[in-house]
Amino acid sequence: MAFATLDPTGLLAPSAGALSAEGPALEVVPPGEIITDLAAATARFQTSFDALAAAHEPGLAPPAGTIDIAVQVWREGYHMPPSGNPASQIAWWILDAGSAPERPEAGAIIIADPRSGPPVPSALARLWGRHLMIGPRPGSHIAVPGWLTASVQPVEAGQYVLVAIASTAR
To answer: pTM, whole model, 2 decimals?
Structure first.
């Protein structure tokens, strides 16, 4: 996994400041309506994907194809069950978030290792089947191999999360 705190200041269009907790649970927004410099955003994702590939060499090659960026707004009621991604690498970047939720896990991204591990519990068994929670704080960023599962904890009333999701084409 590659972690970073990436300041989105200067990349967000004024329309990002007009977002609120009111609206559909999941809103897909064209990236160019929220991100003013898509080339700069792509470069930031590319840096994370390169770092991820370097940490996993030789099993995970750096992306040679395109990096696709999607922008979503998550609001009350949105959640995503654990699922994998067909991309070789995927990354999330929290661009903005509304008020802090009552439950710290509300709107959090959960990254999990879907492997169950060895049948005999041991210290080595803890290497498999673990998970990591990334809270919905502006600037939070993580890149992971696409085979890891990701989920989103249910978003609370009065909360919204603006997120850019990048994936590499296989």
So the answer is: 0.86
Query: CB atoms < 10 A from the CB of 44, how many?
Result: 19
User: Is residue 60 pLDDT above 70, yes or no?
Assistant: no
Tens digits of per-residue pLDDT, 67-113? 999 999 999 999 999 888 888 889 999 999 988 788 889 999 999 88
Contact assessment for residue 63 and residue 88, using Cβ atoms and an 8 Å cutoff = yes
Residues 22 and 58: their CA atoms lie apart, in Å, by 45
Q: How many helices (H) and strands (E) does the chain have?
A: 3, 10
What pLDDT score was predicted for residue 124?
53
CB atoms within 10 A of CB 109: 23
> Is pLDDT of 131 > 80?
no
Q: What is the DSSP string of 142-165?
A: EEEETTSEEEEPPPPTT-EEEEEE
Give the 3-state secondary structure percentages of the chain, helix then strand then coil, rounded to 5: 20, 35, 50
| Helix, strand, or coil (residue 48) | helix
CB atoms within 10 A of CB 105: 13
Q: d(Cα 51, Cα 64) in Å, to the nearest integer?
A: 14
Instruction: List, in order, residues 6 or more apart from 88 with CB less than 8 Å away.
Output: 60, 61, 63, 145, 146, 168, 170
